[in-house]
Amino acid sequence: MAGLCDDHPMRIALIGGKGGVGSSLVEAWRAEHELTVLDRGAAPLPGVRDVVGEADDPAALTAALEGAEAVVHLAAQLPNGSEAEQLPGTAAAIGVNVGSVLLAMRLSRRLGLRSFVHISSLDVFARYGEVPIPAGALPDATALYGLSKRLAEQALRLSLDGPAPTAEEGPLTITSLRLAFPTTAEAWPRWITPLRQEQAEPVLHTLEDGTPISSLHPEDLAAAVMAALRRERGGAYEAIAVTAAAHSIADDSAARLLGWHPRHVLGD
């Protein structure tokens, strides 16, 4: 399937587009691209078409996706509290972090979209941010958030194993972007939690040996997501690590498949 041209303004739907990552993408793109934002938040965003609704509502998703060429799925139930405290919300977390992703992907295929970007996380690796992740390592997280992101990736990958289950579903390029510590321009290189109720001073993460891990600057984030939306290299499905700290994981997929390199790195 032909890719989306680099100089072509795009019609992009952002599912869950009023959180931290989504807001930074809107800020970066709304002057050049035609954006539709689906979010439960009712406060309007200037310069975009607003659809108020839930990420797992087929009618709201259809309204957001109609007319779009590409979609970024950002909606997620984030980790809040200890694993024990999160346990009662397991089914709800899987519903948002896995179910709404698969639903949005299948509706995108039915509506003829060309590119689907799933915002995943390097939390799919249980010890990411503690020790360097070696080349070829497989996701191994069992904590709820990381596990739910693993499951979403697997659902997307498995959905391409055979023909689409309905004749109405067409081809779609699907990319999971495993982000590491996306932050604001003001906080960079430190990370600031997207959970308002847990808001604190920005922190600079370090590996167990004390090596600092730079957070992901919003300019680099927007460039990576746009490159994923226009991706032509690789297979129909790819999972790609996106980090400003190359020493934290031995994975060159962003450079190899997207031509992406972070511009904001510690030491510059």
Automatic annotation (TrEMBL):
It comes from the Bacteria. Coiled coil: none annotated. It holds the Pfam family Epimerase. InterPro entries: Epimerase_deHydtase, Lipid_A_modif_metabolic_enz, NAD(P)-bd_dom_sf. It comes from Brachybacterium vulturis. This is NAD-dependent epimerase/dehydratase domain-containing protein. Residues 13-238 form the NAD-dependent epimerase/dehydratase domain.
